[in-house]
Amino acid sequence: MSKVNLDIPEVEIREIRLNSITGFQGTAKELVSQCSGCGKLKDKNRSFSQCLGCGTSNAACTLTLIQDAAIISHGPVGCSTCLHEFAFTYRVNAHLRQLEHPTQRKIFSTNLEEKDTIYGGGKKLDAAIREVFKRAKPKAIFVITTCAAGIIGDDVESVANNAEKELGIPVVAVFCEGFRSKMWTSGFDAGYHGIARKIIKPARQKRNIINVINFWGSDIFREWFGELGYEPNYITPFATVDSLSYSSEAALTVQACSTLGSYLGAALEQGFGVPEIRNSPPYGIAQTDRWFRELGQILGKEKEVEDLLARKKAEYMPKIEALREKLKGKTAYVTAGASHGHSLLALLKELGMEPQGAAIFHHDPKYDNEDERSDTLRHTVEDYGDVPNYNVCNKQEFELVNVLNRIKPDILLARHGGMTLWGAKLGIPSLLIGDEHFGMGYEGLVNYGERIAEALENDEFVKNLAKHSVNPYTKWWLEQEPYTFLGK
Amino acid sequence: MAGLIEQERYTCAIGALQTVVAIPRAVPILHSGPGCGVMIKGFFERAAGYAGGETAPCTNFSEKEVVFGGTDRLRNIIKNTYKVLDTDLQVVVTGCTAGIVGDDVASVTDEFLYEEDRPIVHVETSGFKSNNYVSHSAVVNAIIDQYVSRFEDDNPARSDKNLVNVIASIPYQDPFWKGNLKEYKRLLEGLGLKANILFGPHSGGVKEWQTIPKANFNVFISPWYGEPIVKNLERRYKQPYYSFGYMPIGANATTEFLNGVLAYALEQGAGIDEKKARAFIAEEEKAYYEELDNLATFLLEFRYGLPEYAHILHDAGYVTGLTRFLLHETGVIPKEQFIVDNIPNKYQEKIAETIKSFSGKREIPVYFDPDAGAMQDLIRGLEHKGRGLILGSGWDKELAKELDADFLSIACPSPYRIVLTTNYVGYTGGLRVIEDIYNTSLATYK
Question: What pLDDT score does B56 carry?
């Protein structure tokens, strides 16, 4: 059955839609083999847990960086207070996307107070939408929901629909209450669902553009696609409401991370007939080759792609070989969201390093396109072999600290904030790369390899920090098995 | 007052979990949905402390807890917190989810308090109840009522004539809280007092909190926030308080503040050598004015342009303190000012009066509105001659660029600036403000 239904206001959460889980302990191969057939994975709970992110933040992450839209968080003032970080990102990364004059981000809160939880916040939201329309003159307004609004049962959909009729711009209710899902990535799906059902329009004609579902990384696709006569259409950071509306006119859709783009990629294909590259993103040589070849095939540019790959090979293989020599046998540990984490493991293996484990935030046994070729972890295991100590850990820092203290890898690779600190406190060089495109393609292997080599060489800072830093974890805890609280 | 807010400069009630993070070796335990802790940390940035941010235990409410209640889950999390984290005080703060479904948190924490004698405190901080300016007091009072009260026998009320509790900066919401509290401590000690500053590396952690009752009186530096704390202490321990309504920045305000504390302390029977205390104030002032003297030529003669007027967007304590400071001690003219901390109506008039009193010649318009986006639009519509200066949060950097004004980030959220132990209050704080403002201006000359 299709997982994409653009007629209903709310997208199903990942736990239900994809049978995703947040608790697993074993090896990568075990997880992949348990996944085959899907729906068989059983999630485990924790009897101790630390603060997680929520769907609201991640929905905002996909929506705040649309150039000419406004965001209203329908909730207490706290539910939007970290969104200023996206305003910062927008401003400082704008130049990467040829945006010379980034406009101010328009982020609002309906500021729900106690009396609103009793009498309802619908009227307040209605007034807020009208005020935002007047003040920000946006091309679209997104209303993101919060725990409080969800529990008191405000009819956000009706308020949004009524305002939309009157104001003549899309007013999109995005359902992303934190308590609904243990996977904050469900927030991505909620944001994209809103875009797919209310912003994207049927194609007028096909154009030479390729949708790239990504965050705010560097503009490498302009060069790649340029060689094939196409331009990237970035979704959603730095897009406009108009460019999103006509993402239906693209030749195809690619994703920087299948965790991020799973839902929108499938929605664009099933709802608007834009094919999606099935193979997971181009990290590591094997995956890069597969990805580019599928791209060439869909575009009818097989020969151009082969030429491009041959050139890349000639240019970068000597450098990659040199890095492999340098990094051979070095051990590593990875902590990241699902798909990107799998990609990082592939990169490490490709560079001749030995990942000794990974703490991956959740696991999707399948993606929305239901095609095994999108399964990044399967590719990593099939291309490079098993990864021991593969754990699905929902960003539980206490488990990470415990594991790192045991394994003591040569380097910690992280994708999310808050985690590198624990490598560094233990004296382990720790590297976080914010730009998700940094490791892509042949050049990405060189980029990453050089940074890893640098981090390994420059360990004076972390060694010194380790000598002086304070650790709030008890001795007892560090002596327990890392997954003591899992499944209890 | 309660409507739409653009660009919030504070956070919701559960934001006061940072009040716990600021106490050495204390841990907040969140009984809330996922996201609350990370959202709060994201607002304040670089604010994880000893066991905040991703380290803080959290029940991460799911649909199941919303429907069936989350007290069992909370019990488990607390029990295991003792095993996993090495902390001196645990404070359970609640989010919107727990508040709306009505979980009885007190009965859970009571089990640990009475059966295991744990240092545990609970406080309701549902986001929709209030904001962190308000709930800071709720958290502090909860710790006083549920934890400090257990040590009253060893710390009889008002038994130390020279000890004071300082109720001032809200940790993290005041970006300079660490430096400011340290400076208050230094200044009060200069008078011959001892100060419980309660937060940060220069406080004594929960041991210091235990001695709160012993204080002879309290020093309350704030236009409104924190008032329930001094009122609570007045009721509980009969401690009176000396009140100063805004941040004392620079020599005029600091001298006035210290003279006020000194007179009050003597009145309360503190054992202070008044002559020595006066000498301390005089010496501090002298050092301050030596700097200002040396700088005066620059302030008066720099030919290439310096800020001539300023707009401040901040809370009432800072707007008032900085307005006075700029006017009296730098010559930069404070124009329209914007108080964005959602200050309750009943305090607004007094603040407006205070600001009015700073100049016999000049009317300084003051706006009270937490909707800082609307305040920015107001600024966009103003016209003033000369070079402008905006003192505000990271949100205002873009505004300053639009208006071609100098910009100094001094309020939350502040993604464009790192603040470690810098202080803005006191004599040294005033000098630091001068350094920061003029270094910002001078950096524009390439």
Answer: 97
